[in-house]
Specification:
Blueprint (H helix, E strand, L loop, with lengths): L14 H13 L3 E4 L5 E5 L2 E8 L11 H7 L2 H5 L13 H22 L6 E5 H8 L1 H7 L17 H10 L6 E2 L5 E5 L3 H10 L4 H17 L6 H7 L4 H11 L2 E4 L14 E8 L18 E5 L4 H11 L3 E6 L12 E2 L2 E2 H7 L3 E4 L5 H12 L3 E4 L6 H4 L3 H4 L7 E6 L14 H8 L1 H5 L13 H24 L1 E8 H11 L15 H6 L7 E3 L3 E3 L4 E3 L1
Parallel strand pairs: 3-4, 9-10, 9-14, 10-13, 14-15, 15-16
Antiparallel strand pairs: 1-2, 2-3, 4-19, 5-6, 6-7, 8-16, 11-12, 17-18
Length: about 550
């Protein structure tokens, strides 16, 4: 395959990415072979293709390591916002994302080949994986309208000041209990948030003022909170705080002091076959990608599920997104890129929309009707709620024989049938991933970059494509389970500290990064900068 633009001849190929892709493909029963130039040969029965992973790909930057990619492509900048300076992640996050994307592209190509549209190779780069991983932040930084809290009265950027406040402010989570336990707090609704802090005697005006930055931390990678909240948690031992949180509908999660890399499965998804498929897939058309002809119904919010659906769409699938009547409220969250939120566009552009209220019989019937003509149902609903909605795999067998049923959860089965809120930062805390991404000399705390949401979305999409390929190969329906926790375990197992970058400028401004002509081949502009599909497929 051709040498990627900007790739240095002296750069060793990204071995961690290739190892991860090969391990996932082998776990699915495919044969792999590593070539000296880093190309991965893949064989499945009579089918053959090559998968090449490079550092830079079409990005015209001199990248030759994980540290280079993190520095040049904005990961250090986003991760370091809470510290007020760019900070290496300390793990091979971009390499892991590239490995997952490489396996996903290879599986999509294999499926297309089984249906009569052969590919001889697929190519992806670590730089493109990194940019896809910060897609929401990149879109927000380049939107036509400034993000909330990012402009002062004169219209000048105030992001640097916010970063300084976050770095210096003693109120940012994790919180510390009376007996010295550091913990993350998660609240999805304002009422539970207010009840928890009211029970600790915090001033209600302080609590109300803190809710917005607490909510926005997923979008901004900043969480400057008043010191009074930290003082309030220091009045009770952790056990009492955790019990109080549960009573109020919020979750307290102790921050593990170290990672447990041996825990969990060797792969971040579980795929099990179901009944025989009634309708075989059809060959993809020209130009739309190897999943052209596949229809996905997506019932998901936040990042993990929508990103998984977005990846399937980037591969050519038709994605029908189920939203509540009136549309997803996140569509209107600043900054706006034309008529829609820039962050929302980064994950959901090109998706069709079906408005349906899952609380009503008519809404559930509408979703089941959409599933009847689909190949994949992708959801991030709480597993305990799925059967009551009639969206579990068993219930949908009669609606769509041969369906690929994909579940993206927070904790999967590891934490039992009634797990606590499994969102990004609690999962980082529980898994020990937080310990790996904390800079040396600092108290352990999760990254405010959504590491688990992003990798969780990528591994969910990988599992979905693997299941589609298995359906064509075996004629059987498939069930896929993945979780944020499984993604965190994967990162803990890989490790791969990023080290220093060999003379690559460190990005400190995402808008400037997006304007760099050397990134032009991998970015689109539609009211904001949007990351193009990270794969190149060779017929």
């Amino acid at each position: 395959m051709s040498t990627a633009t900007g790739e240095l001849a002296t750069a060793a190929p990204p071995g961690l990415s290739a190892d991860l892709a090969a391990a996932h493909l082998r776990a699915l029963g495919h044969r792999t072979e590593r070539h000296p130039d880093g190309t991965l040969g893949l064989a499945s029965g009579p089918l053959r293709l090559e998968c090449r992973i490079s550092w830079a790909g079409p990005v015209a930057l001199p990248l030759r390591s994980e540290a280079d990619v993190q520095a040049a492509c904005g990961l250090m900048h986003v991760h370091g916002r809470r510290y007020g300076r760019p900070v290496p992640l300390g793990i091979g996050f971009a390499s892991a994302a590239a490995g997952v994307l490489a396996a996903t592209g290879a599986l999509a190509a294999l499926r297309a080949a089984r249906l009569g549209a052969p590919h001889s190779g697929v190519e992806v780069s670590v730089a493109q994986a990194a940019l896809l991983g910060i897609g929401q932040y990149l879109a927000a930084a380049t939107a036509d309208e400034p993000a909330e809290g990012e402009a002062d009265e004169e219209g000048e950027s105030d992001e640097e000041g916010e970063a300084d406040e976050a770095a210096a402010g003693p109120g940012a989570p994790p919180f510390v209990s009376l007996d010295g336990v550091r913990f993350e707090l998660e609240a999805l609704e304002a009422e539970g948030w207010r009840r928890f802090w009211a029970a600790l005697g915090a001033d209600r005006r302080v609590v109300a003022r803190a809710w917005r930055p607490f909510q926005l931390r997923y979008a901004t990678a900043l969480c400057p909170l008043p010191a009074a909240l930290a003082a309030a948690t220091a009045t009770l031992p952790y056990r009492q705080l955790a019990e109080l949180a549960a009573e109020c509908g919020v979750t307290a999660t102790e921050v593990a002091a170290r990672a447990t890399p041996g825990a969990g499965s060797a792969v971040p998804w579980r795929i099990t076959p179901g009944g025989r498929a009634a309708v075989p897939g059809r060959p993809p058309g020209r130009g739309r990608g190897p999943l052209d002809g596949v229809t996905v119904v997506e019932v998901a919010r936040r990042v993990q599920g929508p990103l998984a659906g977005h990846v399937l769409g980037l591969l050519g699938a038709r994605v029908v997104r189920v939203e509540p009547p009136g549309g997803d409220p996140l569509r209107g969250v600043p900054p706006m890129a034309g008529p829609v939120s820039a962050r929302f566009a980064a994950l959901n552009r090109h998706k069709e929309v079906l408005e349906a209220d899952l609380r009503s019989p008519a809404g559930r019937a509408a979703v089941r009707g959409a599933v009847a003509g689909a190949d994949v149902l992708l959801h991030s609903l709480a597993p305990a709620k799925v059967p009551a909605l009639g969206l579990d795999a068993d219930s949908l067998t009669a609606v769509r024989p041969g369906l690929v049923h994909v579940q993206a959860s927070g904790s999967g089965p590891e934490r039992g049938p009634g797990p606590p809120l499994g969102t990004d930062y609690p999962v980082q805390a529980y898994s020990g991933l937080a310990a790996l991404v904390t800079p040396p000399g600092e108290q352990v705390r999760p990254s405010l970059m959504t590491l688990c949401d992003v990798l969780g979305g990528l591994v969910c999409a990988e599992g979905a494509v693997a299941a589609l390929e298995a359906r064509e190969r075996t004629g059987l329906a498939q069930r896929v389970e993945s979780s944020l926790l499984s993604a965190a375990r994967l990162l803990c197992r890989l490790g791969g500290g990023s080290g220093p970058a060999p003379s690559v400028p460190v990005c400190s401004d995402l808008a400037a990064l997006a304007a760099d002509p050397r990134l032009a081949p991998v970015l689109d502009r539609a009211g904001c900068a949007l990351v193009r599909p990270p794969w190149t497929f060779r017929p």
